[in-house]
Amino acid sequence: DFMHALEEVKAAFGVSEEELETAMAAGILHFSPYIENILKDGRLFVDLVRTSATTSLLSISKDSNFPFIKLVSAENMVGFSEMAKIQYLNKVFSDAYKSPQNIVVIDNIERIIEWVPIGPRFSNPVLQALMVLLTKQPPAPRRLLIIGTTSQRSVLKQLDLQAIFNRELAVPNVNTHAELASILREVQAFDSENGLVQSLNELRDITGTDQVGVGIKKVLLAVGEAKQEVGNVESRFAEVIAQQIAASRD
Amino acid sequence: DFMHALEEVKAAFGVSEEELETAMAAGILHFSPYIENILKDGRLFVDLVRTSATTSLLSISKDSNFPFIKLVSAENMVGFSEMAKIQYLNKVFSDAYKSPQNIVVIDNIERIIEWVPIGPRFSNPVLQALMVLLTKQPPAPRRLLIIGTTSQRSVLKQLDLQAIFNRELAVPNVNTHAELASILREVQAFDSENGLVQSLNELRDITGTDQVGVGIKKVLLAVGEAKQEVGNVESRFAEVIAQQIAASRD
Amino acid sequence: DFMHALEEVKAAFGVSEEELETAMAAGILHFSPYIENILKDGRLFVDLVRTSATTSLLSISKDSNFPFIKLVSAENMVGFSEMAKIQYLNKVFSDAYKSPQNIVVIDNIERIIEWVPIGPRFSNPVLQALMVLLTKQPPAPRRLLIIGTTSQRSVLKQLDLQAIFNRELAVPNVNTHAELASILREVQAFDSENGLVQSLNELRDITGTDQVGVGIKKVLLAVGEAKQEVGNVESRFAEVIAQQIAASRD
Amino acid sequence: DFMHALEEVKAAFGVSEEELETAMAAGILHFSPYIENILKDGRLFVDLVRTSATTSLLSISKDSNFPFIKLVSAENMVGFSEMAKIQYLNKVFSDAYKSPQNIVVIDNIERIIEWVPIGPRFSNPVLQALMVLLTKQPPAPRRLLIIGTTSQRSVLKQLDLQAIFNRELAVPNVNTHAELASILREVQAFDSENGLVQSLNELRDITGTDQVGVGIKKVLLAVGEAKQEVGNVESRFAEVIAQQIAASRD
Amino acid sequence: DFMHALEEVKAAFGVSEEELETAMAAGILHFSPYIENILKDGRLFVDLVRTSATTSLLSISKDSNFPFIKLVSAENMVGFSEMAKIQYLNKVFSDAYKSPQNIVVIDNIERIIEWVPIGPRFSNPVLQALMVLLTKQPPAPRRLLIIGTTSQRSVLKQLDLQAIFNRELAVPNVNTHAELASILREVQAFDSENGLVQSLNELRDITGTDQVGVGIKKVLLAVGEAKQEVGNVESRFAEVIAQQIAASRD
Amino acid sequence: DFMHALEEVKAAFGVSEEELETAMAAGILHFSPYIENILKDGRLFVDLVRTSATTSLLSISKDSNFPFIKLVSAENMVGFSEMAKIQYLNKVFSDAYKSPQNIVVIDNIERIIEWVPIGPRFSNPVLQALMVLLTKQPPAPRRLLIIGTTSQRSVLKQLDLQAIFNRELAVPNVNTHAELASILREVQAFDSENGLVQSLNELRDITGTDQVGVGIKKVLLAVGEAKQEVGNVESRFAEVIAQQIAASRD
Ligand SMILES: Nc1ncnc2c1ncn2[C@@H]1O[C@H](COP(=O)(O)OP(=O)(O)OP(=O)(O)O)[C@@H](O)[C@H]1O
Ligand SMILES: Nc1ncnc2c1ncn2[C@@H]1O[C@H](COP(=O)(O)OP(=O)(O)OP(=O)(O)O)[C@@H](O)[C@H]1O
Ligand SMILES: Nc1ncnc2c1ncn2[C@@H]1O[C@H](COP(=O)(O)OP(=O)(O)OP(=O)(O)O)[C@@H](O)[C@H]1O
Ligand SMILES: Nc1ncnc2c1ncn2[C@@H]1O[C@H](COP(=O)(O)OP(=O)(O)OP(=O)(O)O)[C@@H](O)[C@H]1O
Ligand SMILES: Nc1ncnc2c1ncn2[C@@H]1O[C@H](COP(=O)(O)OP(=O)(O)OP(=O)(O)O)[C@@H](O)[C@H]1O
Ligand SMILES: Nc1ncnc2c1ncn2[C@@H]1O[C@H](COP(=O)(O)OP(=O)(O)OP(=O)(O)O)[C@@H](O)[C@H]1O
Ligand SMILES: [Mg+2]
Ligand SMILES: [Mg+2]
Ligand SMILES: [Mg+2]
Ligand SMILES: [Mg+2]
Ligand SMILES: [Mg+2]
Ligand SMILES: [Mg+2]
Known about the structure:
elongated, mainly alpha, binds adenosine-5'-triphosphate, Rossmann fold, homohexamer, 10% strand
């Protein structure tokens, strides 16, 4: 299974074990055929792809021939001045040029450039450094795969950052009851298939639709929340996920 | 009663006695069934909730299994530079990762990020650090419950901060004469039930409605103010609370 | 009379004599019943009031049980950096927590936060520190009365500062000829009641109304200006005050 | 004449001779009855006036009983940081409090606060310091006359600065041919009264009006310019002043 | 061929070999007659031209009589402060004045001035230094050819930078199937002419047009991507380039 | 001729030979009667004029009685901080006050204040220092002629800078074929008058008008460019200048 696969990969990647473990703690559930495509696409075009969303990118890089991977995340830069961030980024890329084939993952780009929609404000020096580093050619014959993730595609577009990436992959929400059911089965949310059917029926009664449109993270949290209400897991799950659907629309 | 319960909790929480005592000095009055729900909700979903309003959250955490609690408040950061604030926040979270289960309470988020509606202005570096720290996964198998409070929900929404919290609880105003009466009884505002009825009748005469819509803090202040006018407490309370109702509408 | 009363108070207040003397040099004239109300109100609700306008607040605090008073004014902070201002404010409040009952007067809040309507601009760090300090509970069982003054009520409202104060008192202008006459009599502006009547008649001829709408400070300055034109004081006063009325409307 | 009067005053004023000499080099021409009024007004209300325009204010202060005068001008602050400007202003006022009666002249306020209409931008810290210093009461029984000048009255109004001054005096342009003729005679612009008439006729032919609307400084410069074209002074003056009139309208 | 020509040039240019090699790694494909014109134009007016787009400019300078060339790129300034950037620019120009004939290439001007369309923001000090240096005359009899490149012509126009350049050259996209075919042939994208025809037919089927409108860089990447899908190169190329065409329109 | 005249002047001016030589390298061509007027005007009113455009101002000052001249240009301030610029400006003016008669030339004012139309942005501290220095009276009996140049008259107007100058001179473009012909003859652009006629005819054929509207600098560059295409100079000149005319309109 995935957690096992991950362990094999870790050594190859050369990143600290703890970092990767945290980032991929949940495993990847294959809830829609689209996810399969991302992974297939990812493997196939691994030297071209620069895409979005933390979890799937690690899976993509797994089968590639790039032996080293470096994860750049705002979490490692809390309290850094702008200049310190730029130097950190610059160092990551300089190091990456030293081995023949590399992957640099820039996770949550909007957080690294300190984007906030009010204003809007962001760190232009960090953005500019990132733009230069993303465009810079590694000295021949070195190769570098750069993967970026974001939950604010339109922001990157406005900032002329999107055009720098050669290829874009969207990470889908859980969109239908069918996809939802596949996840609930995989994580064994309910004791029986009957419970699953009952819960989804209750959900359909509340929302009046088969549409879901909620991220997988919120689905998994709802499962955890429902399981605490022993004896009433099915109804509680329907309630909570209905709230999430409503919230995602407001 | 509550003050007693609090004392039991204090030791368990591991926060300084004085800090908690100040924050919860008034006790929690259960003036509406909705408050009951918040507390029940809180207990139930203690590992999911990230919610709003200082007083109720401490009650929520009381019955949880989290042995340590840390209160982050702008009051402890007066005169801090942006960088010092960020380092303080970072330290709180780093410390929280050290024990297996923790609660971090971020009180009055809008004050910590220095929000002001004119401009609007706020400290983007502090906001960004907060966003990263709120999203960061504690190293497995540690668990962390983060609770935030605010009186400016819409601000948090505009700042993309609200979406980081998994669950939201609204703290209600005192809305009806019935709720108002229950509070007045609990704090023994008047010498007799007759006095209570008379005061609320006078209030109804002034406002022409049973609606109140005033925070419990202002109700308690009005009681204190009325009690100073010995021999005329009922009328004075009606007057003062009527002014508050009018002010809350302008 | 007032100046005498003031002397009794000074010792009790514990503020430097010169500071108070400067601030209250003119004495308080009771030109309208409304002023009486402010003072009565002030005495009554001294532990709740946080209000506006330098002169009247010192009178309010006179009969209170608060033995210490601290005046925070932009005049003492000229040339301070933002950080120095915040530290000064912080120190005032910290000191105030040390004695059991205190009054802190924040005079001309709009000047302390460096408000200017063009932009608008102001010092957000100072504003934020003020908001936190105004909201902070003194450690039990200490009590603290905070009084703020401003001539820009709407600014404070826009900045969410007004809501922090529990109670608001407006300081009125001199609005009618009757109020104006009472002041002119108290300060003995003219040699005779005939002169007073003549002067107000001339004023009514110029303005065509009994409305005044000018602050008491400008009235007193007009008296001083008129008195310099010996032999023509009545006409000159009417002229000058008519100019002030016109200016206050443009 | 004026230059003589000035010399008598200088000693009394206690300002450096050279500074005053530069500022008043041109003498004051009494080209309109309005100027007379300003001077009369100025003398009369010398303890109330805070007004505009460098030249006339020195004349105003001449007959006052204030023995010391201090000129605050942006010319003495070129290259100062904001903080240095504030400290300079603070020192001027502190010094002024030391002698019993003083005049402080703030020349060209818009330049001291670094006003520019694009933006608009200005130094808010300097403005705020100025506002506080202008409002501050000198310690009793000291008296302080503050005179400010500006060529941007509306700017001061927008900045809430105008309201701080108790009285306002406008310095007029040269508005009519009659006023213009009186100046030309006083400075002996032409060799004969005939020349004067001829020149103003030519001017009327060009502009088609008796209106002038040009500052006295530009009139004096035009005289100097015309005098260089020996043999054609009258026509040249008419040409140049017509250009100035046109420019002042565009 | 080109790579050979380049080698001859390198010595003459006096730039570091590695820098040039990286910048021109791909060689110049002559895909449209327009490109020929740029090169011809470039050669002809080499002492006048200041133009756009990294690759072609090096070809332009090849046949000129300017023996030294200096490449100014944001890649060499990552992490520089504004002041350091300005000093770097200043040094490049000062050095260039030392030899009798020079070329300075300013690559990606919008990146050097840290342009971002949101705001918009950019480094005005760097821009201003650049404007002055671009306009400055080298001390006679020295000559200096300055070539600038940008992918944001309209930005340069808004910044008054465009007017400083005497001449402007546009670098075209690959616009037609004919141009696309010429490139595919030159890089031997497919095994046979048949494959080429098939692939372009498939492309025409998808897009419904002969228009392309994609930069040559993306065409070359698409070739690389297609070649990985052995046995299906033609269809895959059509798919990928169709996506690029769609993306360039959205 | 002009270059000769210049040499005579240089000694008198006391500026470094190289600086002047660079600034006036091209000589002044008298292409329109208007230029003659500027020079006449300039000579006549040399103690009043503050005007625009580098080349003509040096000619203006040649016949004046001012023995010293100081050129202030952004080229000498590249990499200066705001404060360093202000100190440099301040020093130039202080030095100028030391000799009895002086000229200070402020070249390209918009560059010195770092103006950019996007925003717009500029250095307000430098602008303010400039405004004060331009207005300041030199200590009597010293005289100072200040000449400013700009290619952005409307910017100076918006910044209230234009009003500080007493007189304004516009430097014209080459506007008609007649003016163009006079320049082409003076610089011997073509071998024969026939060639000149032919070239202007071709130009008229392309543009369909006798209007030119191009600065003299671009005309001279076009001549240089055309001369490189030996055997085709006339047609090439018509082509290039037609492009310039088109560009000046877009
Ligand atoms: N395919 C999946 N299978 C199982 N769990 C998943 C899957 N994708 C995401 N998750 C869960 O959702 C959580 C968040 O996923 P991830 O961090 O990849 O999302 P993201 O798009 O990067 O979000 P963010 O914007 O917060 O960075 C993961 O910790 C994991 O628990
Ligand atoms: N349920 C309650 N019972 C009794 N008193 C209460 C209750 N809730 C609030 N109070 C009183 O109101 C005061 C303010 O409450 P609390 O600080 O929790 O409000 P808040 O929503 O956090 O307001 P703020 O925005 O000022 O932080 C408390 O000090 C307490 O006196
Ligand atoms: N009731 C009063 N009786 C007599 N004089 C008064 C009275 N109120 C104000 N004054 C006079 O007006 C002056 C200004 O009053 P005060 O400083 O209280 O006004 P304020 O509202 O605080 O104005 P500011 O906005 O300038 O601070 C005082 O110095 C005093 O001379
Ligand atoms: N009444 C007057 N008689 C003679 N000359 C005058 C008079 N008023 C002004 N001037 C001349 O005009 C010049 C400018 O006057 P002044 O400096 O007082 O004007 P200002 O309004 O202060 O202008 P600024 O805005 O430049 O400070 C003086 O140097 C003087 O030459
Ligand atoms: N005529 C050409 N022939 C072959 N390859 C080319 C040609 N022009 C560009 N390329 C390829 O496209 C890549 C990008 O070209 P270049 O750097 O010149 O583009 P640019 O316009 O400067 O883009 P950027 O905006 O990224 O600086 C080059 O590395 C090269 O691979
Ligand atoms: N009348 C003239 N005769 C000959 N050449 C001229 C003339 N005027 C300008 N030039 C040429 O044009 C060039 C630019 O002129 P100048 O520097 O005076 O223009 P400017 O208006 O100051 O432009 P900028 O805005 O770039 O400062 C000069 O170097 C010179 O070659
Ligand atoms: Mg992520
Ligand atoms: Mg709270
Ligand atoms: Mg006051
Ligand atoms: Mg002046
Ligand atoms: Mg490039
Ligand atoms: Mg110039």
